[in-house]
Amino acid sequence: MSALNIVVLNPLADRHRELILAAEPNVTILVTDEANALEHMPSCHILVTWGWMETRHLYQAAPHLEWIHALSAGVEKLLFPEIQAADTILTNAKGIHGIPVSEHVLAMMLAFSRGLTVSLRQQETRQWKRIPTGELHGSTLAIVGLGSIGREIAKKAKALGMTVLASKQEVTTELFVDKLYPPDDDSLLEMLAKADFTVTALPLTESTQNRIRLQHFTAMKPSAYFFNIARGAIVNENDLVTALEQNLIAGAGLDVFACEPLPESSPLWSMPNVIITPHVAALSPAYLDRSVKLFADNLTRFIQGREMLNVVDKVKGY
C-alpha cells in the first residue's frame, strides 16, 4: 500500500506525530493552516480539521480524499452537499469532551447555588454581607440531549445527590438518569417544569436549531437556572434575554452564543444573573492528546478495513 497523505489543520506536538506514526508508520503527516491548505489538497487522502472550519473548497480540490476527521464533536461546517452525496467517511471527536464540559457545568451550577456570583461582585466593593445560599443536593437537573457529554454531567450530578432527568431520541437504560423523556415538545415541557437546573447538550442540526424558545423558558420554575454548553443557535437568544428580563427564570450560565464573540451590545453582558464564558467549556490541557489518540485508533481501523469509531451520520448531522 502506498503512503497515505494526512493533512492536519492544527499544530501538532512531537508526541502527537509519534502517536499517529505508531498507529501507522506508512503515512506522511503534513501540518498546515486554513490559509495554506489548498495547495496540499490534490494529494491529500485524509483531512484532519475542526468542525467549525470552512472546508468545502478544500474538499472540492481533493480528488483522492477518503476520510475527514473532525477534532471537535460538532461537524456543522463539514456537512456540505458534496460530502453528503459521496462515500467519504466523516468522523468526529465525540466522547472526549465529557470531563471538562461536565466540570464546567458543575462549576456554573455551584457558583449560582452557593452565591459566588454575588460574592464576587461584593468582593470588588469590599462588602462583607452574607447572602442566601442553596445546595445542589436534593435538587433536580434536566439534561436536554443525553449524549456522551450529557451522561458525564448526569454521572457527576448523581454523585452530588441530585435527581437527574434527561431527554434523548432513543429509549435506553441509563445508569445515572432517574427518568428518561422522549424529545417531543410536550415531554420536554413536562421535564423542564420539574427541574431546578437545565442544561442543553444537543448537537446543532436543522432539527435542533432554535429548539429552546420562550415557551420552554416559561415552562421552567422562576427559581430555575438554564445552562448552554452546546451551540448558541440551539437557543433563541432573544427569547432567553426576555426570560431573564421578565424573571421567568432565575439565571443562566452560557458558554456558547448565536454570534461569537458575543457582541458588546448584547444585554447579556450586564445581567447580574448571567455567567458568560467565551466558548471554553471543552478546553483542557488534555484535549488534543485525547483527540489525536482517538484519530490514531481510527487510523489503524481505517488501514485494516475495520469498523471505525464515531462515524457521523451525514443526514442526521451527528
From TrEMBL:
It comes from the Bacteria. Keywords: NAD, Oxidoreductase. Residues 7-312 form the D-isomer specific 2-hydroxyacid dehydrogenase catalytic domain. Its EC number is 1.-.-.-. SUPFAM superfamilies: Formate/glycerate dehydrogenase catalytic domain-like, NAD(P)-binding Rossmann-fold domains. GO terms for molecular function: oxidoreductase activity. Belongs to the D-isomer specific 2-hydroxyacid dehydrogenase family. PANTHER family: 2-HACID_DH_C DOMAIN-CONTAINING PROTEIN, D-ISOMER SPECIFIC 2-HYDROXYACID DEHYDROGENASE NAD-BINDING DOMAIN-CONTAINING PROTEIN. This is 2-hydroxyacid dehydrogenase.
